[in-house]
Structure formats: structure tokens, C-alpha cells
Amino acid sequence: MDQVAVVIGGGQTLGAYLCEGLAEAGYRVAIADLNIQNARRVADTINSRYGEGRAAGFEADATKEASVVALAAAVDETFGRSDLLLYSAGVARAAPITEFGLSDFDLSLQVNLVGYFLCAREFSKLMIRDGIKGRIIQINSKSGKVGSKHNSGYSAAKFGGVGLTQSLALDLAEYGITVHSLMLGNLLKSPMFQSLLPQYAEKLGIEPEEVEQHYIDKVPLKRGCDYQDVLNVLLFYASDKAAYCTGQSVNITGGQVMF
């Protein structure tokens, strides 16, 4: 496969897992992250497993226009094409609305929404230039479909991502470029979720060690969302098998959200 996947936020956790899964599926992978050491480490792992030149790490701040423009140019120079853009950068801050700081709210919007816009804009230009019927996929959340208590900034940004995905899909349909959001359930073992356990425990009035089970009990399939669940759906919507689908917000929630 000659196709190139560009993963924003690919230097750790879910993003790194998806980079390795895409490499295993045959993609060459451009790994962009705010932390260049993390990006290079993931790239080195992929190259050691699948051969030199299969991956490269890039430093980028998705919230800064000049950085995203430079990233697109660097990926283009290194790989010569972009077939799949995966926006996996994200951040969450938890607090009651009466205590939610403007800086935290703005950070949520910048990382979860503005960065997605900038990256989609710049990499769609490359796809259009080369006549590539590419794929743009955003890692979103069930919080982009249902409000989330004490997570107003995150939920607002994720709801915005759904609207942006639909608008991008309409803009890019004439070029054969499809756009989707993957609406994840709770990644209970992820560092992001684990970091919020004290706040969630306070919100729910339970002990931190009880939080995971509380969220599992909400899921009809009775488990959290795993990284592999995300990769499975990602590979389908990245493939030609999903060529007639665009603008969708795809639930990966174990039945917790069904619309």
C-alpha cells in the first residue's frame, strides 16, 4: 500500500495505538504531536516492526495556524501525498459550570475543535490537489451527542465537531473525500479518563475506585470502550468499503448512545 495516514495527536495513548494499527494495515504513517519526542518514539517503533520509512514523527501544535500549515508542507515533502487524516488530539477539563474557568473552556475549544478545523482545511487541500478521494476522520466522543455534567467545555467542543464534520462532508463530497466523527464511549483505562477519577468521584458522591464500575453499569454491553474497538471502526471508514458513507457520527459506545 502506498497510502499515507496523517495522525494528529499520535504520540501517545489512543493516538499511538491507532498509528501502529494503521501501519499494520499497510499505511505509511505521519505522526504529528505537540511532543516531538513522543512522535518520534512511535515512528521508531513502527519502523522497527515494518521497515524503515514506514513512519515519521513531526512536531505540531494543532491550535496554531502557522504550525498546521508547516506540518502539511513537511508531510507533503516527506511522503508526497496524504490519503487519510485522523484527528486524535484532545483534552478534557472537569468542573461544575460555576467553577469552570474561561481558560479551560477555551483550551477545550482550541484543541478539540479549532485544531480539527485547521488540520482538515490544510490536508484536504493536498487531497484535492492530487485528486485523492481521501478520508478525514475525527476522534470524537459520546459527549458530542449528549451533554456531560461538569464537562461543559469538552462537550461543547465535541458537539461542534459533529457540525464541522457534516459541513466538511458537504464541502468535500464533490472531490470524493469523505468525513466522519467516531463517537467513543468511555475509554476507562485511558490516561485521560484515569486522570479525571477524583473529579468524577466527587461529582457522583462515590469513591474513586468505584467510578469505573459506575460507568460500566451505564453500558448495555457492560464494558468500557477499548482502543481496539476504535481501530476496528476506523479501518472500516478509512476503507473503500465505506466509500458511500460521509458526514456520519458513528457511535462506538456499547449501546449507551444509539442516535
Automatic annotation (TrEMBL):
InterPro entries: NAD(P)-bd_dom_sf (IPR036291), Sc_DH/Rdtase_CS (IPR020904), SDR_fam (IPR002347). Gene3D superfamilies: NAD(P)-binding Rossmann-like Domain. PROSITE patterns: ADH_SHORT. Signal peptide: none annotated. The lineage of its organism: Bacteria, Pseudomonadati, Pseudomonadota, Gammaproteobacteria, Enterobacterales. GO terms for molecular function: sorbitol-6-phosphate 2-dehydrogenase activity. It holds the Pfam family adh_short. It is an enzyme of class 1 (oxidoreductase). Its EC number is 1.1.1.140. SUPFAM superfamilies: NAD(P)-binding Rossmann-fold domains. It comes from the Bacteria. Keywords: Oxidoreductase. This is Sorbitol-6-phosphate 2-dehydrogenase. Belongs to the short-chain dehydrogenases/reductases (SDR) family.
